[in-house]
Structures are given as structure tokens and as C-alpha cells.
Amino acid sequence: MATAVALAGTLLLASCGGSDSGGSDGKTLKLWHYEGPDSAMGVAWKEAIKEFEAKHPGVKVKFEEKGFEQIQKTAPMVLNSNDAPDIMEYNKGNATAGALSKQGLLTDLTAEATKRGWDKEISGGVRTISQYDADGVMGSGKWYGVPNYAEYTMVFYNKDLFKKYGVAEPTTLDELTAAMDKFVAKGITPLANAGAEYMAQQYLYQLALSKADRSWVDKYELYKGKTDFHDAAWTYAAETFADWVKKGYISKKSTGTKAEDAGVSFIQGKSPILFSGSWWYGRFQTENKFAWDTFLWPGSNLTLGSGGNLWVVPKAAKNKELAYDFIDITMSKKIQNLLGNKGGVPVAADPAAITDPQSKSLIAHFNALSGKDGLAFYPDWPVAGFYDVLVSETQKLITGSEKPDAYLSALQKAYDKGLPKT
Prior knowledge:
- InterPro entries: Bact_solute-bd_prot1, SBP.
- By secondary structure, this protein is of the alpha/beta class.
- The protein is 48% helix and 12% strand.
- It is globular.
């Protein structure tokens, strides 16, 4: 693994080239992000680049598309070099943006957020991920990132398959369970799942959230009290998830499946239900050839979600003023409205400008969640390296090689080991 990371770092550095690694000429904005070109963010940011270049004659945006995993693994090394970009998209949370801010690798954006009014446009659970204290813990302190969209998880379902098999569209958890039983009886695995990546752990975390409240989330994510993985919420989640595998709602073969595979199985009409994030929405609007809809996880006041990934400005960036201007353009009504109509969740759009009916529904659900303080972040955020632990341990739960009690003990051990020393 260490060799692979080192190699990825070498490739990433090589791909940047060293030609402009001297001082700033003020004529190039080096930008990295990892959103697909057809996603709502990819479309909106492409337009933002055009707008930026129109407003900055003689300045060119040097955009380089990176992979999520690539940036995740190599950012500390690259940001400590002369090849750092001027602005880049980076994952939010204590274990990622928080860790980089603590290492002194990110620019403090507090003054710009105040001057340009970003602090007025970004509030609540979205704002939480923008600010980090001296220990890299989100929720307070200086601004180190700006999210210009939000995200949350929901249940996507194939209305045509529900109709074909005479399954009622569910409004409660009992009805969802009954629907899954019907699909299993027809020989269909109801839930698309990806055990090799984030999706499986997000199913499990959502089950826990359905038995939790805000103080539970604050203990787990923000260290405001002790987290007990053998409490009622976590125990219910692990036992229910294992039971769902036994009942055939989740395939035992999904341990090696990636998120892309799960998404494609939904797009191809093979899986009737997918629980995942709003980042799929724009793609499903484009690629799904069947009637589909969404609903929030039934019987839960909380669901996974937050502000989107962050625009961060590396400490070593050579064109910081240009980077601030670019962030400002992505926060403009024009780009925010475009993002909203392409299936994203904008943070500062004009509601009247969102005309697409499905996009209106997406944003309405988000506003309902946000209004009741329902965004509960993500399970891998609290401590560095926890994502990999959750993947490997949840895979064991899927195969049945680990029982729920042992699974929860393994999570407790990894979580406690990674907690900041106070």
C-alpha cells in the first residue's frame, strides 16, 4: 500500500510538470477537481471557468481532473511541494480538510469569507464543514474551505420495477421492508450495494441514525462526549444490516463491488432500490431510461449529508487572489442556478430560477432536512484512516465472517485509537 501511495504521488507530481513551479506570473490559475464532466458540479464549474476567463482577460485556467482517491492519498505530499495548485476540491471533515488545516497546508479564508459574503450565504450544517479549530476539528475556528453545493443521501427507486412486480411505493420503514421481501420472493436482490467502497457503511450508518439524535451525532463526529459502539443505535444498525444480508436484501457477493458498479446496476434497471447521495442525481436524470423517484429514509429525522466538498486554497498556492475570485464566481447566482437545474443542491441559488421538476424536488427535500437540522455528516469523518476500517469491517459483516458484536468492538478500538489526544 505504501508503495502504491508513493507511486501515485510520483505520478501526480509528474502530471503537474514543473514548468510553472517558480513564482506567480498572475496569468494562470491552476485548478484541480474530481467531479465527472456530466455531473451537476462538473457542468457548473466548466461554466464558471468560462466566466472566470471572461472576467480576467489574459488569464488562463489550467484545469487538471484528478481522481478522488488520488487527491485523498497524495494531498499532504503535493501541497507541501512547489507543484501545489492554486485551488482544488478536497474532501470535508476532520480526517481530511481538518487534518490538512492542522498541518498548516491550507490558507485561512476567514477574511475573504467575510469580505465576499460567503459567511452569509453558507449556514447551518453546511457551514460546519467550512471551519476548523487548531486541532483540525470541524464546526468552529477559521474558514479553510468553501462548499458551493450541499449533498445528502436518499432512497432512489425504480418506479417501473415496483409497478411491474406489484410492489407498493413505501412511505414507512415497515413498508420498505415489505417491498424488499416482495422483490426477494421474485428472485431479485432489492438493494444495490458496494462493499468495497463507501456505500455499505452508509447503509449501516443510516440504520444507526434512525435510532439516534443530534447529541449522538455530536458525540461521534465532534467529540462532544464519549461514543459507545455497543449502544442501542449502533447495535441496532449492525444487527439489522447483518439480518438484511441473511434475508437477501443485500447480496453477499457485493463485498468486492465498487460504488460505480452499484450505480450502474440501478441505471441498467437491475436493482430496484439504491440508497446513496445526491451526487448521483444529475447522472440518473441523464442516463436512467425508466421512471424513478426518491424519498428520504423513512422513520428517521437524520440522514447522511453536509455541505459538499470544499474549495480549498493551498498555503503554497501562487495565485491566491485569482483563486478567491474563482470561488466567488462559483457562488454567483448564475452558477448556483445552473448547478441547481443540472441536479445539484446549490447553497445560494434563486429558488424561482430552478425550473426542472426533479431538481425542485431534490432541493425541497434538502431544505426540509436542513430546516430540521437533519444533516448528520458521514461515518468515516471522525478519525483519520477510519474509512478503510469501515470498509474492511463491513465487508466481514456482509460475508458473515464477523458477528455484529465483534464488528462493533473493532470499530470502537479503531475509533478510540484515532481520537485526538486532549
